Amino acid sequence: MLHTVAPPSRSPSLSAPVPRAADPDRRRTSARVVLRCVLEHGPVARSTVARLTGLSPAAVTDHCARLAGLGLVREAAAPRRSGGVGRPHVPVDVDASRLVVGGVHVSVPYTTVALLDPRGRVVAERRLPHADTEPSRVLARAADALAALLDGLPDARPLAVGFAAGGWVDRQAGTVVEHPLLGWRDVAVRETLGAHTGLPVHVDGHARALVGAERLFGRSARGSRSVLLLFAGNLVDAAFATHDEVHHGPRSQAGTIAHLPLAGGTEPCPCGRTGCLQAELSERTLCRRALEAGIRGGTDSARVVDAAAAGHPVAARLLRERARMTGRAVGLLTDVLNPESVVVTEAGVLHRPDCLAALRGELDDERAATVVPASFPDSLLAVAGGAVALDVLYRDPLAVSPELN
Length: 405
Known about the structure:
Layout: H1 24-41, H2 46-53, H3 57-69, E1 73-75, E2 92-94, E3 99-106, E4 110-116, E5 122-129, H4 135-151, E6 157-165, E7 168-170, E8 175-179, E9 184-187, H5 189-197, E10 201-205, H6 206-217, E11 226-232, E12 236-242, E13 245-246, H7 277-281, H8 283-292, H9 301-309, H10 313-337, E14 341-344, H11 347-351, H12 353-360, H13 365-368, E15 371-373, H14 380-395
Parallel strand pairs: 3-6, 6-10, 11-14, 14-15
Antiparallel strand pairs: 1-2, 3-4, 4-5, 7-8, 8-9, 11-12, 12-13
């Protein structure tokens, strides 16, 4: 079992008591704004945080003191004075030295467990092939693997666990309502993982988790007023965010796009139709076609990408064809949502410029320019799990403190 820990002690330079605000919700909102500003701009002077957020310098100093007491920010190295007068500004930055969140992502062939620091960087990761997909055993193995990762980082202080998966995931209830390829129905993930780890557990769908990660830590979608993310794995789904809010819909059913009809699709779908988006773009379809073409080890999209990199012409063609079909899916979704940025996780697009070009070639120039690969090509699933917990942290950082729970 993992164990929670008391918040770290305050740094001597930031140990002055912080008065309680009359409106606790306003205090939480201001703390969130300050922490997000430090994440975006750090190392950054408190005076700059005040200017960027519109808060008073005294309020920013108080919030930085509280966040430092929780171990979320720390003073960066003091700048050298260069002949100026007065006290130099000591910048603050997100403290990524000790606090971590756990991440669990359950996909069809394996579970990915990871530890992420507060900047969304993966500090430890392990992949667990499924011996079976019975939910309680999958989650127990994931909890044991998280404990082992923490044993390898004795100074790490775990805050929470994030869980992500495809299919229908109810964030509020903390359940996987339905994952058709795993055969999961109404799995109480939050309750089960919480019992195993002793930590708060936050649950969401992987496309929504990755939209949050892109907005917090990504290269291209950060600052966009609206972002669409298309996740193409064994399951195919989407997520949409506007003004820092990810759309979930009733019972978190938003983003279900598996049976959208895709022009030119030829793959039979279990629903009885042909050319459904998931049937056409699924990793299973890509790998089956690769095996039929004689590509050895073609049971994972990474193997197909490796074969293409090694010069296998059929592997490269299959990846380009899948990317073109992904472009048609992007066209369908952008016709409806008209996002400012589009992020795609499809394997070929993540790793091959020719695949990105093939995808963009299915769109007009204006929309093609909005499409970018996901920011985490080599740690996509690890980031997805941990990002669920980090999103909660950055929305309400004061909840780290037991006195405020």
